[in-house]
Every structure is written in structure tokens, then in C-alpha cells.
Amino acid sequence: xKAPAKRAKELRDLLTRANRAYYTDAQPIMSDQEFDExxxxxxxxxxxxxxLRDPNSPTARVGGDPIDGFTTIEHSVPMLSIDNTYSEQEVxxxxxxxxxxxxxxxxxxxxxxxxxxxxxxxTEPKIDGVALSIxxxxxxxxxxxxxGDGSKGDDVSHAARTIRSIPLELEGDVPDILEVRGxxxxxxxxxxxxxxxxxxxxxxxxxxxxxACAGTLKNLDPKVAASRSLGxxxxxRGEISEPGYADSHSAMMTKLEGLGFYVGDHRKxxxxxxxxxxxxHTIDTARHEMEFATxxxxxxxxxxxxQDALGTTSKSPRWVIAYKxxxxxxxxxxxxxEHMVGKTGKITPRATLEPVLLAGTTVSHASLxxxxxxxxxxxxxxxxxxxxxxxxxxxxxxxxxEQERPKGAAPVLPPDECPACASPLEIEPPESEDDPxxxxxxxxxxxxxxxxxxEKLVWFVGRNQMDIDGLxxxxxxxxxxxxxxxxxxxxxxxxxxxxxxxIEIERMGEKKVDNMLQGIxxxxxxxxxxxxxxxxxxxxxxxxxxxxxxxxxxxxxxIDAPVWALMPQxxxxxxxxxxxxxxxxxxxxxxxxxxxxxxDTAPVVHEYLTSTPARDMFARLKSCGxxxxxxxxxxxxxxxxxxxxxxxxxxxxxxEHFTRPELTEKLEALGAKVTGSVSKKTDLxxxxxxxxxxxxxxxxxxILVWDEATLLEHLEDG
Length: 718
Hints:
Radius of gyration: 30 Å
Shape: globular
CATH class of the largest domain: Alpha Beta
Helix content: 25-40%
Largest sheet: 7 strands, antiparallel
Distance between the termini: 49 Å
Structural class: alpha+beta
CATH superfamily of the largest domain: DNA ligase/mRNA capping enzyme
């Protein structure tokens, strides 16, 4: 049997080659099943031998733990934006201007540039994605930054490591410092699946792949990026420690392809104007067959020396321009509007249209996004509407031919009650009271709404909520597909009455059912914080649930509390009539405790908690034996005498004796506030092994830093 370190290296090398063969060379060397088996073996080895773990291991592709927040870092070389145009004439003018400024003139008989300084131009598709700069030091992935404002970007390394077309280790002729710039994209097939699911959930679909990609990269949980099969296409450079590494864009792309980067298949070089313009038309024809959304063509001067000679403006390089394709738009009839209810209760309007061929596909539905947009368009059933594809992907209604409106056509009106359960709706107020068309969201607040209940049940039983072992998403679907009633949180705690029927469900069995029922029984004692966190209440996540459970002894006390009691810190900052309206004759709240809720969010939560459906739901859970008292409660005026009470603490790095959630819970029980980012308000940073930028920032600010040994001493003393 091979030594673990040797076998881990073999597996990493093999999986790295397999990634390159699949994503760069398009010549797979193993099946998906074989790849997954090898990856699983490597993950098991790293779990058994923590000393073998490596942040750039292929196992990082599946995503690790969520990060606490983003660090903003300055680009070593600014990431400037590219000027763009929708005019072919402007492209021609730009091409000629570059040639002239470089000392060359176009030949009158066909656009050939002459002279020793005649430029070569490179054309390639412009991907509708998110710009990324990836830094390697000595061939090893160090970090990935978004463009940001061009001078500074957010560190999204946690997500970039999951992208299989981004090499984590480079082999061959690599400068000590190499920054590769390119575009992260969501493959169109994946993008369509994401939006189909969002529409089924009643959520507003993403406008375009770039919007979805940006949201994925900025999600704090790397597993989200890992689940969406992001791609990366290299198209540029940042800092390079060897100035002579490549002398042109074409040469750089050849070098990067040799290092394992995907650099695209539609790049062409041209020495005349005719070739440049023909390339624009060729890419326009081919783009509908590409795996990524393409909204134009990038044209650049190839030579780096000539690029330097042309220089930049304050915003953009003079040696590159992007021609943007105009969106295709066609008229069709609006047949109906469906009001779709999502898992959070959000209601989204969706248009059904007479089928129309648009950008290569037949369009029958289009997003209307929100009811403010419906009002702005003044839509009526039967209207002749203009439809275009946003980013060439998402159909949307962009205009109405009012003069073509059928006589007696009914206006499209937002629902006054939930279309799934007929419950009243919460309507978020418009940003401007003078313009009601700015309304964005209507939401069903009924916790028993059938359109929401399945997703809420899946969330409720999850590990960080009620943590019911054996009752996951697939099991919930199987039970809901049987004759057993599962329409309410309380129904979970009645499943023991259906043991025999559960055993008969396919793939259940006696042992699995008994384990699940025991998990349900155990969940009854999880306490108020877990119950609140599991209900999917707007503005009430795990942290706010725990804070509320500290401030209130049980659910009855929370429900009976006035709205000001849910936001004491916000109230103490108020003055005048607003404060008097909330507090009456009270001069000041005696104790300022934290709830995680503020002036905007506390009234929403209070309205939900005091609603009839919510009261009924808590009553039903109580009747099932669910403990709705707080396991975390401590009187808000109770003074704690220890080294942590009242302190704001940040955790960073890897600790030997605690997981981060365990230590967070312990410190919070001692009266501390644990946050994810270092600021001037931070009192203490606890730094474990491999502490990163948070430790550096704490040292720069002069904040007290403890290692784990010091922490343990103070915990023992406290």
C-alpha cells in the first residue's frame, strides 16, 4: 500500500491533468464516474491525514466552508474598462485611427495597412460574464479578484478555486508572478436550468448570465459556485515579473493555453480593415452556437509595444474597443399573465406570449420582473408588445404598441391576495411616494401557503435549523407523494402515527424510518432559537434567532412584546415624535440589548409574529410537544463577570480545540459579540493557524490578538 502523501500527490496530478484535458483540450482522459471516484479517494485521504490538506487541492473544487465576508485588495495593475460602440462605422474609424497613430495608412484598394509600423488586429468574442484577475506566485494560485472599481477588487478566491477550468498549479515556464485576466461565465445550459428552477420557485429569473455569474461569485458559500459549473476564459494579463514573457496578445494567449487555460476558439488576427469587419459578422453568426453568452466582439491591437505607444485615457485603453451587437427585438401578443408564488412568498408576474422566433429560439414566455414594471408598461391582455432577449438569453417585454390595443382589453393588475392560498399580501412600498410604479415586491406572509410549504419544510429540517437526521429533501418529497399528510411544520411531529405507512414507501424501510422518527423526537427539544431559524421568517436567520432567544424567555414573551422591544438599540437612537409614538411615556429603555433587528426590519418581523397564521402555527407546534422556550435566554440586565462579556470578537484561522461555530456559541454564551470582519470597533481577534488578512488588519489597527493558548487560559479563568 502506497504512503498517503505519495498517493495524494498521484491523485492530485491525475485530477489536475483530467481537468485540463476536459476543460482546455476538450479531450477527456477519464469518465465522469472515474473522476468522481478518484476525487472521493483524495478527499478521504485528506480527511484522514489533515497534514496533507492543501488549499489548491482538486478537492477545493467542490467548495469548502462559507467565508465571513469579502476582503478588498488593490490591483497591482489597474483593470480598466473597454470603450464600446454599437456602430460599425465607429469601429472602422477606430481601426484607421490606431493605424494612423502608429505611422501607417490604409491602402486605398482594400484596407491593407502598409509600412513597417502596420498593426495587426486581433478579434475575439466578447463574453457577457464577470472580469476576474487571478494571481499566481511561483506557479501556485494565490488569489482571485473581481474588477471592482478598477483599482481595487473583492477577493473571491473561495469561489474561483471551485472553477475547474482555472488551474490551481501551473507547470512549465512560469514567471515568479503571473496575473491572468479573463472572464468567468455560466454555461448557457446551466443558466437555463437555474432560471427554470427560479421560475418554478416563483423567484424572479436572472436577467442575464452575467447577473447570475456575479451573484454566484459574490455568494459567501463556495458550494454555490461549485454547484453552478462556472467556466473561465483567459483573455488578458495583469502583473508579470518577466517583462519579456510575451510580446503580443496572440503570443500571451499561446503561452496561457500551454499552461492549461481555456483561451477560446474564435480568435483571429487581421492585417486589414476588411478582415476585422468580416470577423464581426462571422462571430455574430456563430455566437448562438457558443456555450457562453456573447454580446459583442473585442478588437485590439496585437503588439504590446504598439499598445504601449497608443496608451490609455483615464478610463480605457486606446488600443482596444468592443463592438456590441444590438439586441434582436420582435413584436408579439400578450396572451395572459401568471402570478407565480415562490418559496419565500414572493410573487412574480410572468407573461405568456404568442410564440415568436427570437435570436434563434422560439419564445412563448417572458419575465415581467415586478408589478412596478407592469404599471410602467401599462400592460393589457391582448396588447401587441415588443420582446427582446436581455443579454441574448432572457426574453423580456420592453415596449407596448398602445395604438394596437384591442378594444376593451383588460389591464394587467397585481393580485390583492395570494393566488395560491388567498392570504393577504405584504407590499413593499415604492422607493418614491410620488411614483407608485417603483413598487418591487409583493409577498404572501401565510406560513402554510401550499406554494411555499415544501421548500419551507426542507429548510426547517436542515442541519443548522431543527437538524432532523434522516428527513431530508428526497424523503420529504417521497412522503408528500404518498397518502400521508405533510403540509405543515407540525405534521412532521405527527409522522410517528404513520410508522407502518412510512415503512411501505419505496427506499424507506424499518430501520431508516425508526432512525428518522427518533431524529424527529430529538428535535422537539431544540429550543426557540432553532425553531425560529427554521421557519424561513424574513429577516430572521440563525444569528437573529439566537439573539432573540437570548432576549426573550419563550415564544409567548416574544409574540407579546411590543415592536420597540424587538429593536431597542434603534429606538434609543431615535428622538422626537417617532420615539414618543413607540415608547409613550418612557424616557429611555432601561437596557439596550441586541436583537439583530432595526427600524426597517423589526416591524416586518413583529407583524409576522403577531399574525393569526403565525400564532396558530406556534400553537400547533406546542401541542405536538415542541419546546418553544429559550435555551439561550439570560435576563437582559444580568451582568456577566468574565473576560468576554460585552466584547466584540473576530475569529480567524484554524483552531485545534474548537470548530468556529462551537467557539462562537461558547463566546456568545459568555456575553461576547462575534463578528466576521475586523474594524475599529473590534476588541479582540482570536487567531489560529494560517490566519490571514484579518490578523494583518488587526495588527495594523493595534487591536488585541490572542492565540489559541491564550484563549484557553482566559476561558479557564472565566
